[in-house]
Amino acid sequence: RTIHLKDYAPFPWLVERVDLTFRLSPDATRVLSRVAFRPNPDSAGGPFFLHGEGLRLISAAVDGTLVTPEVTPEGLTCAVPDGPFLWECEVEIAPSANTALEGLYMAGDMFTTQCEAEGFRKITYYPDRPDVMAPFRVRIESDLPVLLSNGNPVASGTGFAEWDDPWPKPAYLFALVAGELVAVRDSFTTRSGREVALAVWVRPGDEGRCDWALESLKASMAWDEAVYGREYDLDIFNIVAVDDFNAGAMENKGLNIFNSALVLASPETATDRDYERIEAVIAHEYFHNWTGNRVTCRDWFQLCLKEGLTVYRDQQFTSDTRSAPVKRIEDALLLRSRQFREDGGPLAHPVRPESFVEINNFYTITVYEKGAELVGMLKRLVGDNAWRAGCDLYFERHDGQAVTIEDWLAAFSDVTGRDLSQFQRWYAQAGTPRLAVEEAWDGAKLTLTFRQATPPTPGQPEKAPVVIPVALGLLHPDGGELMGTTLVEVNEAEQSVTYDVADLARRTGREVARPVPSVLRGFSAPVALDYPRSTETHAFLLAHDTDPFNRWEAGRSLARTVLAAEATGARADRAPLFAGYRAVLQDPSLDAAFKALVLALPSEDDMAQTLHAAGHTPDPLAIHAAAEAVRDATARELEPLLAQTHRANQVPGPYRPDAASAGRRSLANSCLALLSRTDGGERARRQFAEADNMTQSLAALASLLTIGDGLAELATFGEHWADDRLVMDKWFALQVACAAPEDAAATAERLTRHPAFHWKTPNRFRAVFSSLAGNAAGFHAPSGAAYELLADWLIRLDPVNPQVAARSVAAFDSWPRYDAARQERMRAALGRIAATPGLSRDTAEMVSRILGD
Ligand code: ARG
Ligand code: ZN
Hints:
- It contains 27 helices and 31 strands.
- By secondary structure, it is of the alpha+beta class.
- Strand 25 (434-441) and strand 26 (445-453) form a beta hairpin.
- Bound molecules: arginine (ARG) and zinc ion.
């Protein structure tokens, strides 16, 4: 059944309060609920329907009188009085049988929950929709030592604990955790003097890996006060680490639950990347307390209201805490590699979709990351002051409410008087706008003409122009700025802007000459720029652009030109790319992380996207071969400089995860990967032997595996970390990611037979299969073996964990770009999945969208 945004209607009752009692037992947990309802004056009325799935109804009563509701697989309906009434009900559920990891389930010996989006209905009968908000009181009865829920602790004793959450919340923010856990504690005093007890709860043995999460949490709390004036609102803030978790983390009120991979860190077990991600995800979930919890979504179509905004806020936090240009480049890389891919294929959907079958399928890179880009564009368009004023107004107006994108935008149009109706198209139109730029120079004036067009996407053949904020500057051909960054708002299909260069030259004391535009600075809009420029211009911008993002972008364009030519059998002049590398590596003003980003080639999937957009049928093996050839040549050409950079960027002393040290390691390890191609892996072997932290040992191991070596090191690593789940995930993932194209499927298949391949644990499943899908040449190897293997495993996983299976099917969404043989094999694999009897709604929806039926 398809749900449509246009069908929204409020729930006919309001909930005044919810009292829950849990009698925990793995196979037969009893859940008792008492819910006070009263008629919703804003509703036209309707039947009393409560969601509920997989529940054994023990008893139900209305105002103390037993009732016999009509029960279906989706919920129950029941006759109720006209006025306010008390609903009481008892159900039984089996957390131990819950392998879907949605609702109340067991992660090892501990009880835990995941309710977003619609998991609460697997716990008890309830109006499980985000616009029904209520204060919750929870009593947990169990012999387990630690019993946690949302809000503040109010009572506890032998075998029970009680929690009270005074802040009205939707059911998707409910959480409960019970188990043998230990806490690492800290505290934070808010700027108005509230003392908040912080704790990270982990399994005994993991206590030593919690410090970074706590540091990150305190930094996030302080940042949200300083930048948005948002304070925390309970006496306690708990974080729990869970090994079996479908997603990354969850912002349940006062009780955030995290995939353990995104909380636990120690120098020996976590990489610099892990530290950075943990910091960002801790911040993300904490920031949800205001953007998501205090102000929530009216319905799930509005998911980007909380996710786009919260991603934007966590990006801002990282950019303030670390390096802003580096963060912007990382975000653009992610957006362009994954979101542009989604937007350009059969799964394309608007940031605010208009219909869905299974909402879990819409926790996508489009809703999250493109959603964040829309927030960033809005801020750019209204300016920093109006941005803060608009946010303040939004919080003030809607605190305690469940609202829409229209409400969000109204805060900004009210603050600025600006009409945001055209801007709103960004939320409704799928697809990546292409922005073509053309220059015209008459000797004194420069005219830039912009043409925008958004390609058709499923269900949306026609597109209207959107508002594109284009940040641009003009550089003098001798270097140096002729005009600093200005904002051009492109809102027509075609629009021009003219600069009086003679006048600009006079004002900057230069001679009149054709300037070099630097367009879409800071990646000011999520568009694909179509701006053919010469290699000389790219080289010039790489050397001289004053905008760091575009400087990096210029280097990337050089690499892209070379790879595109070589992957299509043409000859390319690599010299300008190498000259650019040399100049960047030798520039003392650039930071190490930035240099590492310049040195990284566009990913193979990115190149497939590029070639496809240019009208080619990409050949994944040719792309892989081209990338390998360029890397080999880089190593040969730049060997002394790479060796020197590698040496100069070793970080002495004990491991510290700060951005500067991490940046130096990143650069040194980029050099190491290249140098391994010429030194036979000698440096990498030494680094592996001497490493005292995971960043260094994993980078060394990856360098060795990539050159077809490192089997002894891989075995040593596997034995040493055999008992560490998080590190073993890396061990599984790395082998598949680094496998040569012809070995990737076989490597993955071999690993599925490893005794530690616990495929029901999402992290382990993804370690093998996300890595396989991410190894572009391996996934698309001509035999089709990887397609077959993934399909086999998705068919197996689907009945166990539909959410993870459905997400992983997306690996096939690129089929329309490839040649007939690959298309046929990919479609056959999809067809086989589709034909599986009893396929979940989650996976069925994904397969049918991917196939375009
Ligand atoms: N709200 C969580 C977050 O982004 C993610 C929840 C994922 N849930 C899901 N059903 N996919 O912080
Ligand atoms: Zn989120």
